[in-house]
Amino acid sequence: MHGFGSSKVAATLRRTVVVNCGHAPRLPLATYQRQKGALPTYKPEFIAHVAERRAALRAELAAMLPADAPIVLEIGSGHGHFLARYAAEHPAKLCVGVDLIGERIVRAKKKATRAKLTHCHFVRAEARELIEALPAGVTFDEVWVLFPDPWPKKRHNKNRLLQPSFFEFIAGRTRAGARLYFRTDHAEYFQWVVAAMPRVHTWRVDPASVWPLEHETVFQARAPSYQSLIAIRTADPAKPVRTVLPPLPGPADPTSSA
Predict the structure, then answer these.
(1) Catalytic residue numbers?
(2) Is 116 contained in some domain?
(3) How far apart are CA 108 and CA 81, in angstroms?
(4) What is the pTM of this model?
(5) How many CA atoms lie within 13 A of 99 on its CB side?
(6) Which residues constitute the domain of residue 114?
(7) CATH code for the domain in which residue 176 is found
(8) Residue 246, in any domain of the structure
(9) Domain total in the chain
(10) Counts for the chain of helices (H) and strands (E), in that order
């Protein structure tokens, strides 16, 4: 099992909340639903649960982060080994790790607490929901994606995190010159990302960049080999990409995608 997105829970949540994150069509919600067969109906308690979860996430992040903070984001932070070490070596940087597995977040928070890393936070959430729930002025100085699930079967490639639309999505929160660090032990996934990068004008691969911190993660320790990629945010404006469903449609407007 790899990092963020590897569990069936994560896959189920993505199918529930994602319209376009690179593994679903970039279509209006109503059109996408009609092509799938029929508009779904949601129980009121489910709609309330989703709204409550998103509101709680927004409140948690607003209390945690200054409104205009540049942050280091690790997607799929696992037990916090890497990010806690990174935060210890960079006390001036505000670090946030996100993972969907609660047990991982508990252990990661304990690491940060023991090391008195008050600038290092871990949040249980789906990565795209977290990014959309961040305070409006929060931007990314660095984004780390270490050993994400490769979804190796061809029919599952659409579930991979690093899609062109995801790069566009995070570009909207990222200043020019910021960096994205990607490492994987799955050679085909690595080449798949490399092949996709020329289609993403908001990022460029920089082979000359130096990996800033080598600290072995659980997944890296298990990997017989791995490949790394560093991408730099260009000055090109990001295209708007909606990744998380808007508030679920109510009875008054069952086809709304706003």
Answers:
(1) 149
(2) yes
(3) 7
(4) 0.76
(5) 29
(6) 8-233
(7) 3.40.50.150
(8) no
(9) 1
(10) 9, 7
